[in-house]
Protein backbone atom coordinates (compact mmCIF):
# COMPACT_ATOMS: atom_id res chain seq x y z
CA UNK A 1 0.00 0.00 0.00
CA UNK A 2 1.54 3.36 -1.04
CA UNK A 3 1.90 6.19 1.47
CA UNK A 4 -0.80 8.19 -0.33
CA UNK A 5 -3.24 5.28 -0.18
CA UNK A 6 -2.58 4.89 3.55
CA UNK A 7 -3.22 8.58 4.18
CA UNK A 8 -6.37 8.48 2.03
CA UNK A 9 -7.62 5.51 4.00
CA UNK A 10 -6.91 7.07 7.40
CA UNK A 11 -8.61 10.30 6.33
CA UNK A 12 -11.63 8.42 4.90
CA UNK A 13 -12.12 6.59 8.20
CA UNK A 14 -11.78 9.83 10.17
CA UNK A 15 -14.30 11.65 7.94
CA UNK A 16 -16.78 8.77 8.09
CA UNK A 17 -16.57 8.65 11.89
CA UNK A 18 -16.98 12.40 12.07
CA UNK A 19 -20.09 12.22 9.87
CA UNK A 20 -21.59 9.44 11.97
CA UNK A 21 -21.10 11.60 15.07
CA UNK A 22 -22.93 14.50 13.49
CA UNK A 23 -26.54 14.27 14.55
CA UNK A 24 -27.89 17.42 12.95
CA UNK A 25 -30.62 17.24 10.31
CA UNK A 26 -31.82 19.79 7.82
CA UNK A 27 -34.75 21.65 9.31
CA UNK A 28 -38.20 20.88 7.93
CA UNK A 29 -40.89 23.51 8.15
CA UNK A 30 -44.39 22.66 6.87
CA UNK A 31 -46.22 25.53 5.13
CA UNK A 32 -48.53 26.28 8.06
CA UNK A 33 -48.74 30.03 7.46
CA UNK A 34 -49.90 29.72 3.83
CA UNK A 35 -52.36 26.99 4.89
CA UNK A 36 -53.80 29.23 7.63
CA UNK A 37 -54.22 31.97 5.06
CA UNK A 38 -56.33 29.58 2.92
CA UNK A 39 -58.54 28.88 5.96
CA UNK A 40 -58.93 32.57 6.71
CA UNK A 41 -59.85 33.44 3.12
CA UNK A 42 -62.38 30.57 2.92
CA UNK A 43 -64.12 31.84 6.06
CA UNK A 44 -64.18 35.39 4.69
CA UNK A 45 -65.65 34.22 1.37
CA UNK A 46 -68.48 32.39 3.20
CA UNK A 47 -69.18 35.45 5.34
CA UNK A 48 -69.20 37.75 2.27
CA UNK A 49 -71.57 35.36 0.45
CA UNK A 50 -74.02 35.41 3.36
CA UNK A 51 -74.06 39.21 3.19
CA UNK A 52 -74.35 39.26 -0.64
CA UNK A 53 -71.08 41.20 -1.03
CA UNK A 54 -70.39 39.87 -4.53
CA UNK A 55 -67.47 42.18 -5.37
CA UNK A 56 -65.71 41.15 -2.14
CA UNK A 57 -66.39 37.46 -2.89
CA UNK A 58 -64.79 37.79 -6.32
CA UNK A 59 -61.73 39.59 -4.89
CA UNK A 60 -61.21 37.04 -2.14
CA UNK A 61 -61.66 34.08 -4.49
CA UNK A 62 -58.74 35.42 -6.52
CA UNK A 63 -56.70 35.82 -3.32
CA UNK A 64 -57.60 32.26 -2.29
CA UNK A 65 -56.45 30.89 -5.66
CA UNK A 66 -53.09 32.63 -5.16
CA UNK A 67 -52.83 31.32 -1.58
CA UNK A 68 -53.56 27.75 -2.74
CA UNK A 69 -50.81 28.12 -5.34
CA UNK A 70 -48.37 29.18 -2.61
CA UNK A 71 -49.32 26.22 -0.44
CA UNK A 72 -48.89 23.82 -3.37
CA UNK A 73 -45.41 25.17 -4.16
CA UNK A 74 -44.42 25.12 -0.49
CA UNK A 75 -45.72 21.54 -0.11
CA UNK A 76 -43.63 20.39 -3.08
CA UNK A 77 -40.53 21.98 -1.47
CA UNK A 78 -41.45 20.36 1.84
CA UNK A 79 -41.80 16.97 0.21
CA UNK A 80 -38.45 17.34 -1.59
CA UNK A 81 -36.70 18.33 1.65
CA UNK A 82 -38.32 15.40 3.50
CA UNK A 83 -37.24 12.92 0.82
CA UNK A 84 -33.71 14.34 0.88
CA UNK A 85 -33.63 13.99 4.66
CA UNK A 86 -34.86 10.42 4.50
CA UNK A 87 -32.26 9.54 1.87
CA UNK A 88 -29.51 11.19 3.85
CA UNK A 89 -26.89 8.82 5.15
CA UNK A 90 -23.24 9.41 5.94
CA UNK A 91 -20.87 8.66 3.09
CA UNK A 92 -19.35 5.23 3.38
CA UNK A 93 -15.59 4.84 3.67
CA UNK A 94 -15.70 3.37 0.17
CA UNK A 95 -17.49 6.48 -1.18
CA UNK A 96 -14.97 8.79 0.47
CA UNK A 97 -12.04 6.78 -0.95
CA UNK A 98 -13.64 6.92 -4.41
CA UNK A 99 -13.94 10.70 -3.96
CA UNK A 100 -10.24 10.94 -3.04
CA UNK A 101 -9.22 8.93 -6.12
CA UNK A 102 -11.39 11.12 -8.38
CA UNK A 103 -10.02 14.31 -6.78
CA UNK A 104 -6.44 13.08 -7.26
CA UNK A 105 -7.08 12.37 -10.95
CA UNK A 106 -8.91 15.65 -11.63
CA UNK A 107 -6.80 18.16 -9.69
CA UNK A 108 -3.14 19.08 -9.97
CA UNK A 109 -2.27 18.52 -6.32
CA UNK A 110 -3.98 16.95 -3.32
CA UNK A 111 -2.58 16.82 0.19
CA UNK A 112 -4.14 15.56 3.39
CA UNK A 113 -3.25 16.26 6.99
CA UNK A 114 -5.04 13.71 9.17
CA UNK A 115 -3.74 15.40 12.33
CA UNK A 116 -5.13 18.81 11.35
CA UNK A 117 -8.24 17.37 9.63
CA UNK A 118 -7.39 19.24 6.43
CA UNK A 119 -7.69 18.32 2.76
CA UNK A 120 -5.90 20.77 0.46
CA UNK A 121 -6.61 20.67 -3.25
CA UNK A 122 -4.81 22.92 -5.73
CA UNK A 123 -6.73 24.09 -8.78
CA UNK A 124 -5.32 24.74 -12.21
CA UNK A 125 -4.44 28.32 -13.12
CA UNK A 126 -7.40 30.67 -13.22
CA UNK A 127 -7.53 33.26 -15.99
CA UNK A 128 -10.68 35.36 -16.24
CA UNK A 129 -11.18 37.79 -19.11
CA UNK A 130 -7.42 37.72 -19.78
CA UNK A 131 -6.59 38.61 -16.16
CA UNK A 132 -4.24 36.00 -14.69
CA UNK A 133 -5.18 35.14 -11.12
CA UNK A 134 -3.01 32.06 -10.67
CA UNK A 135 -3.98 28.81 -9.01
CA UNK A 136 -5.87 28.49 -5.73
CA UNK A 137 -5.69 26.11 -2.81
CA UNK A 138 -9.06 24.93 -1.52
CA UNK A 139 -8.48 23.94 2.11
CA UNK A 140 -11.30 21.95 3.70
CA UNK A 141 -11.48 21.19 7.43
CA UNK A 142 -13.54 17.99 7.75
CA UNK A 143 -14.24 18.72 11.42
CA UNK A 144 -16.36 21.66 10.26
CA UNK A 145 -18.29 20.11 7.36
CA UNK A 146 -21.64 21.35 8.67
CA UNK A 147 -20.50 24.81 9.68
CA UNK A 148 -19.98 28.02 7.77
CA UNK A 149 -16.30 28.61 7.17
CA UNK A 150 -15.62 24.91 6.64
CA UNK A 151 -13.13 25.79 3.95
CA UNK A 152 -10.83 28.53 2.74
CA UNK A 153 -9.75 29.49 -0.75
CA UNK A 154 -6.13 30.65 -0.68
CA UNK A 155 -4.33 32.08 -3.70
CA UNK A 156 -1.23 29.93 -4.24
CA UNK A 157 0.58 32.73 -6.04
CA UNK A 158 -1.52 35.72 -5.05
CA UNK A 159 -2.25 38.35 -7.69
CA UNK A 160 -4.62 40.50 -5.64
CA UNK A 161 -6.57 43.44 -6.93
CA UNK A 162 -4.47 46.60 -7.00
CA UNK A 163 -6.95 48.37 -4.77
CA UNK A 164 -7.41 45.60 -2.20
CA UNK A 165 -4.74 43.11 -1.15
CA UNK A 166 -7.37 40.89 0.51
CA UNK A 167 -9.23 40.33 -2.77
CA UNK A 168 -7.42 37.60 -4.67
CA UNK A 169 -10.32 36.77 -7.02
CA UNK A 170 -13.43 38.77 -7.97
CA UNK A 171 -15.40 36.46 -5.63
CA UNK A 172 -12.77 35.74 -2.95
CA UNK A 173 -11.98 38.13 -0.12
CA UNK A 174 -9.89 37.33 2.97
CA UNK A 175 -9.65 33.70 1.76
CA UNK A 176 -13.47 33.32 1.83
CA UNK A 177 -15.33 32.44 -1.35
CA UNK A 178 -18.70 34.06 -1.85
CA UNK A 179 -20.50 31.11 -3.40
CA UNK A 180 -23.40 32.94 -5.07
CA UNK A 181 -25.38 30.49 -7.24
CA UNK A 182 -23.34 27.57 -5.92
CA UNK A 183 -24.21 28.09 -2.26
CA UNK A 184 -26.97 25.46 -1.90
CA UNK A 185 -25.11 22.82 -3.92
CA UNK A 186 -21.94 23.34 -1.86
CA UNK A 187 -23.84 23.16 1.43
CA UNK A 188 -25.52 19.91 0.37
CA UNK A 189 -22.29 18.38 -0.91
CA UNK A 190 -20.56 19.14 2.42
CA UNK A 191 -23.52 17.96 4.47
CA UNK A 192 -23.60 14.66 2.56
CA UNK A 193 -19.81 14.31 2.67
CA UNK A 194 -19.57 14.35 -1.13
CA UNK A 195 -16.04 15.74 -1.20
CA UNK A 196 -15.43 15.33 -4.94
CA UNK A 197 -18.60 17.29 -5.77
CA UNK A 198 -17.60 19.99 -3.28
CA UNK A 199 -14.14 20.55 -4.77
CA UNK A 200 -15.49 20.53 -8.34
CA UNK A 201 -18.19 23.08 -7.43
CA UNK A 202 -15.68 25.44 -5.83
CA UNK A 203 -13.33 25.09 -8.79
CA UNK A 204 -16.12 25.91 -11.27
CA UNK A 205 -17.03 29.05 -9.28
CA UNK A 206 -13.37 30.12 -9.36
CA UNK A 207 -13.41 29.72 -13.14
CA UNK A 208 -16.51 31.91 -13.52
CA UNK A 209 -16.71 35.68 -13.42
CA UNK A 210 -19.86 37.51 -12.42
CA UNK A 211 -19.15 41.22 -13.00
CA UNK A 212 -22.51 42.24 -11.53
CA UNK A 213 -21.45 41.05 -8.10
CA UNK A 214 -17.68 41.14 -7.72
CA UNK A 215 -15.62 42.49 -4.82
CA UNK A 216 -13.40 44.15 -7.42
CA UNK A 217 -14.27 44.14 -11.11
CA UNK A 218 -11.66 42.69 -13.44
CA UNK A 219 -11.61 45.95 -15.41
CA UNK A 220 -10.24 47.60 -12.24
CA UNK A 221 -7.99 44.70 -11.26
CA UNK A 222 -4.65 46.31 -12.12
CA UNK A 223 -5.84 49.78 -11.12
CA UNK A 224 -4.06 53.02 -12.04
CA UNK A 225 -0.86 54.28 -10.49
CA UNK A 226 -1.10 57.97 -9.64
CA UNK A 227 2.00 59.82 -11.01
CA UNK A 228 1.77 62.41 -8.25
CA UNK A 229 1.47 60.44 -4.99
CA UNK A 230 2.40 56.98 -6.31
CA UNK A 231 -0.67 55.27 -4.87
CA UNK A 232 -2.73 52.74 -6.85
CA UNK A 233 -6.33 53.62 -7.39
CA UNK A 234 -9.37 52.11 -9.10
CA UNK A 235 -10.36 53.57 -12.44
CA UNK A 236 -13.61 54.90 -10.96
CA UNK A 237 -11.65 56.88 -8.36
CA UNK A 238 -9.23 58.45 -10.82
CA UNK A 239 -9.31 61.73 -12.72
CA UNK A 240 -8.25 62.62 -16.23
CA UNK A 241 -6.79 66.15 -16.26
CA UNK A 242 -8.84 68.34 -18.60
CA UNK A 243 -5.73 70.13 -19.78
CA UNK A 244 -2.83 67.65 -20.17
CA UNK A 245 -4.85 64.36 -19.98
CA UNK A 246 -2.71 62.96 -17.14
CA UNK A 247 -4.58 60.43 -15.00
CA UNK A 248 -4.16 60.97 -11.27
CA UNK A 249 -6.02 59.74 -8.21
CA UNK A 250 -8.97 61.90 -7.23
CA UNK A 251 -7.12 63.25 -4.16
CA UNK A 252 -4.30 64.61 -6.33
CA UNK A 253 -6.67 66.41 -8.70
CA UNK A 254 -8.04 69.89 -8.00
CA UNK A 255 -11.30 71.45 -9.12
CA UNK A 256 -11.11 74.80 -10.89
CA UNK A 257 -13.19 77.36 -9.05
CA UNK A 258 -14.42 78.94 -12.29
CA UNK A 259 -15.14 76.10 -14.76
CA UNK A 260 -15.62 73.23 -12.22
CA UNK A 261 -13.41 70.77 -14.20
CA UNK A 262 -10.67 68.89 -12.38
CA UNK A 263 -6.95 69.24 -13.20
CA UNK A 264 -3.64 67.75 -12.15
CA UNK A 265 -1.42 69.88 -9.91
CA UNK A 266 0.71 71.02 -12.88
CA UNK A 267 -2.26 72.52 -14.68
CA UNK A 268 -3.89 74.46 -11.86
CA UNK A 269 -2.61 77.55 -10.01
CA UNK A 270 -3.79 79.67 -7.15
CA UNK A 271 -5.14 83.09 -8.12
CA UNK A 272 -2.75 85.79 -6.76
CA UNK A 273 -5.72 87.91 -5.80
CA UNK A 274 -8.21 85.60 -4.03
CA UNK A 275 -6.13 82.40 -3.48
CA UNK A 276 -8.74 80.24 -5.25
CA UNK A 277 -7.66 77.36 -7.52
CA UNK A 278 -7.91 78.30 -11.20
CA UNK A 279 -7.04 76.42 -14.39
CA UNK A 280 -5.00 77.96 -17.21
CA UNK A 281 -8.11 78.57 -19.36
CA UNK A 282 -9.82 80.52 -16.60
CA UNK A 283 -6.65 82.42 -15.62
CA UNK A 284 -5.30 85.63 -17.18
CA UNK A 285 -2.23 87.75 -16.66
CA UNK A 286 -2.57 91.27 -15.35
CA UNK A 287 -1.30 93.64 -18.04
CA UNK A 288 0.29 95.83 -15.37
CA UNK A 289 2.04 93.52 -12.88
CA UNK A 290 2.21 90.31 -14.96
CA UNK A 291 0.82 88.08 -12.20
CA UNK A 292 -1.88 85.43 -12.92
CA UNK A 293 -5.41 86.03 -11.69
CA UNK A 294 -8.85 84.43 -11.99
CA UNK A 295 -11.46 86.23 -14.08
CA UNK A 296 -13.18 87.66 -11.00
CA UNK A 297 -10.00 89.41 -9.87
CA UNK A 298 -9.37 91.28 -13.14
CA UNK A 299 -11.07 94.43 -14.41
CA UNK A 300 -10.26 95.29 -18.00
CA UNK A 301 -7.23 92.94 -17.86
CA UNK A 302 -5.87 94.74 -14.82
CA UNK A 303 -5.87 93.15 -11.37
CA UNK A 304 -7.69 94.86 -8.53
CA UNK A 305 -4.43 95.88 -6.82
CA UNK A 306 -3.01 97.53 -9.93
CA UNK A 307 -6.42 99.06 -10.53
CA UNK A 308 -6.38 100.60 -7.06
CA UNK A 309 -2.82 101.85 -7.51
CA UNK A 310 -3.77 103.40 -10.84
CA UNK A 311 -6.77 105.13 -9.28
CA UNK A 312 -4.64 106.44 -6.41
CA UNK A 313 -2.10 107.81 -8.89
CA UNK A 314 -4.71 109.62 -11.00
CA UNK A 315 -6.80 110.99 -8.08
CA UNK A 316 -4.25 113.62 -6.72
CA UNK A 317 -3.97 115.12 -10.22
CA UNK A 318 -7.75 115.42 -10.33
CA UNK A 319 -7.68 117.10 -6.89
CA UNK A 320 -4.97 119.44 -8.11
CA UNK A 321 -6.94 120.10 -11.27
CA UNK A 322 -10.12 120.90 -9.35
CA UNK A 323 -8.26 122.96 -6.77
CA UNK A 324 -6.32 125.03 -9.33
CA UNK A 325 -9.07 127.55 -10.29
CA UNK A 326 -9.76 128.42 -6.65
CA UNK A 327 -6.12 129.33 -5.95
CA UNK B 1 -32.81 0.29 -12.78
CA UNK B 2 -31.87 2.76 -10.08
CA UNK B 3 -29.24 5.53 -10.28
CA UNK B 4 -27.95 8.05 -7.80
CA UNK B 5 -28.34 11.43 -9.49
CA UNK B 6 -26.61 14.55 -8.17
CA UNK B 7 -27.84 17.60 -10.00
CA UNK B 8 -25.58 20.47 -9.00
CA UNK B 9 -27.52 22.83 -11.23
CA UNK B 10 -29.49 24.31 -8.36
CA UNK B 11 -29.71 22.93 -4.84
CA UNK B 12 -27.48 19.92 -5.54
CA UNK B 13 -29.59 17.29 -3.79
CA UNK B 14 -28.57 13.67 -4.27
CA UNK B 15 -31.59 11.58 -5.24
CA UNK B 16 -32.17 8.03 -6.37
CA UNK B 17 -34.03 7.91 -9.68
CA UNK B 18 -35.50 5.07 -11.73
CA UNK B 19 -34.50 4.86 -15.39
CA UNK B 20 -35.14 2.37 -18.15
CA UNK B 21 -32.52 -0.19 -19.10
CA UNK B 22 -30.38 0.99 -22.02
CA UNK B 23 -30.65 4.70 -21.21
CA UNK B 24 -27.59 6.57 -22.44
CA UNK B 25 -25.85 9.42 -20.63
CA UNK B 26 -27.17 11.90 -23.19
CA UNK B 27 -30.79 10.69 -22.88
CA UNK B 28 -30.60 10.90 -19.11
CA UNK B 29 -29.06 14.36 -19.28
CA UNK B 30 -31.72 15.67 -21.66
CA UNK B 31 -34.49 14.34 -19.45
CA UNK B 32 -33.15 15.90 -16.27
CA UNK B 33 -31.84 19.30 -17.34
CA UNK B 34 -34.18 22.11 -18.36
CA UNK B 35 -32.02 23.64 -21.12
CA UNK B 36 -29.75 20.77 -22.09
CA UNK B 37 -26.53 21.82 -23.77
CA UNK B 38 -23.90 19.23 -22.80
CA UNK B 39 -21.01 21.65 -23.31
CA UNK B 40 -22.35 23.79 -20.47
CA UNK B 41 -22.04 20.91 -17.97
CA UNK B 42 -19.49 18.55 -16.48
CA UNK B 43 -21.12 15.14 -16.59
CA UNK B 44 -19.48 12.41 -14.57
CA UNK B 45 -20.54 8.81 -14.14
CA UNK B 46 -19.02 7.16 -11.08
CA UNK B 47 -16.86 10.31 -10.84
CA UNK B 48 -15.31 9.73 -14.27
CA UNK B 49 -15.77 11.70 -17.53
CA UNK B 50 -17.87 9.70 -20.00
CA UNK B 51 -18.89 9.60 -23.64
CA UNK B 52 -22.42 10.86 -24.33
CA UNK B 53 -23.51 7.53 -25.80
CA UNK B 54 -22.34 5.42 -22.84
CA UNK B 55 -25.13 3.30 -21.43
CA UNK B 56 -25.94 3.75 -17.78
CA UNK B 57 -25.93 0.75 -15.44
CA UNK B 58 -27.89 -0.06 -12.33
CA UNK B 59 -26.31 1.62 -9.28
CA UNK B 60 -24.37 4.19 -11.30
CA UNK B 61 -23.69 7.54 -9.71
CA UNK B 62 -24.21 10.37 -12.19
CA UNK B 63 -23.36 13.98 -11.35
CA UNK B 64 -24.21 17.00 -13.46
CA UNK B 65 -22.35 20.23 -12.62
CA UNK B 66 -22.59 23.50 -14.57
CA UNK B 67 -19.29 24.63 -16.07
CA UNK B 68 -20.09 28.21 -15.09
CA UNK B 69 -21.34 28.90 -11.58
CA UNK B 70 -21.55 32.56 -10.71
CA UNK B 71 -20.07 33.61 -7.41
CA UNK B 72 -20.96 36.85 -5.71
CA UNK B 73 -19.68 39.20 -3.04
CA UNK B 74 -21.06 39.61 0.46
CA UNK B 75 -22.02 43.25 0.09
CA UNK B 76 -24.15 42.32 -2.97
CA UNK B 77 -25.90 39.59 -0.98
CA UNK B 78 -26.48 41.98 1.97
CA UNK B 79 -27.86 44.63 -0.41
CA UNK B 80 -30.25 42.22 -2.11
CA UNK B 81 -31.74 41.05 1.21
Descriptive overview:
The complex is a heterodimer of chains A (327) and B (81). Chain A is α+β, with helices and mostly antiparallel strands. Chain A is built from 7 helices and 21 strands. Chain B has helices at residues 25-32, 74-80; strands at 2-7, 14-18, 41-45, 48-49, 61-66. Chain B has a 5-stranded mixed β-sheet, covered by helices on one side. Chain B is an alpha+beta fold and 81 residues long. In chain B, 25% of the residues are buried. Chain B has 2 helices and 5 strands. Chains A and B meet through helix 3, helix 4, strand 8, helix 5 and helix 6 of A and strand 2, strand 5 and helix 2 of B.
Helix content of chain A: 25-40%
Biggest sheet architecture of chain B: 5 strands, mixed
How many helices of chain A? The count is: 7
For the termini of chain B, the CA-CA separation is 43 Å
Mind describing the biggest β-sheet of chain A?
A: 4 strands, antiparallel
Number of strands of chain A: 21
Q: What fraction of residues of chain A sit in β-strands?
A: 15-25%
Percent of residues in beta strands of chain B:
25-35%
Distance between the termini of chain A: 130 Å
Mean pLDDT of chain B: 87
pLDDT below 50 for ≥5 consecutive residues: which ranges of chain A?
A: 318-322
* SS field, number of helical segments of chain B: 2
Observed structural traits:
heterodimer; A: alpha+beta; 39% helix; B: 81 residues; alpha+beta; 5 strands; 19% helix; globular
Topology overview:
The complex is a heterodimer of chains A (327) and B (81).
Chain A: H1 3-21, H2 32-50, H3 54-87, H4 93-106, E1 109-113, E2 118-122, E3 126-128, E4 131-134, E5 136-141, E6 151-155, E7 167-169, E8 172-173, E9 176-177, H5 183-192, H6 195-206, E10 224-225, E11 232-233, E12 238-240, E13 247-249, E14 254-255, E15 262-263, E16 268-270, E17 277-279, E18 283-285, E19 292-294, E20 298-299, E21 302-303, H7 304-323
Chain B: E1 2-7, E2 14-18, H1 25-32, E3 41-45, E4 48-49, E5 61-66, H2 74-80
Parallel strand pairs in B: 1-5
Antiparallel strand pairs in B: 1-2, 3-4, 3-5
